[in-house]
Amino acid sequence: MQIALAVLAAYLLGSVPFAMVSSRIFGLADPRSYGSGNPGATNVLRSGNKKAALVTLIGDALKGWAAVYVARQLGFSDTVLGLVALAVFFGHLFPVFLKFKGGKGVATAAGVLFALDPLLGLAVAGTWLFTAFAFRYSSLAALLAAALAPVYALLMHGANAQIIFIGILAMALIGKHWQNLQRLMAGQEARIGSKKKG
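The structure assignment produced for this chain is given below.
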């Protein structure tokens, strides 16, 4: 029962849409109504309001970190920590509060990884930052960081149960960015900081 409650609580926390919250706070339009239509920090940035985008980024990352951190403080096993990590992450992807149409999970995944292993989180975040600054594509940065997350975990800790959860998270992230990958290949993907359209 405790495990089920922990997983449910993590999912509900993950479902909190900080893109919507920050847009309300800063008096912005619904982020689903412009740009990519994605309720996430990168799309909120397209509104031109950097503070709102930062609040979204921090909120989405913190919920991922908090879910895993609290579960660890409660003494749950590594397997349960993995389930909690996936629950908060999939809560962001498929939030009950937005009719199961959520964001792409990059910030929440980063928060989860930092809570599971700060060094792993730094490696993945560093990959995202380098790629984003070098090429100015958030989606490319997310795809590369997601693909390398299980590799980094394997190199750091060897094969263990945690690799399975990180692998599932990585595959889900790549799946959520599949259309972005197609646009990247077609040269049609929007760069970081591009303004909202129509």
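Interim note for the steering committee: The longest helix spans residues 50-73. The CA atoms of residues 21 and 56 lie 8 Å apart.
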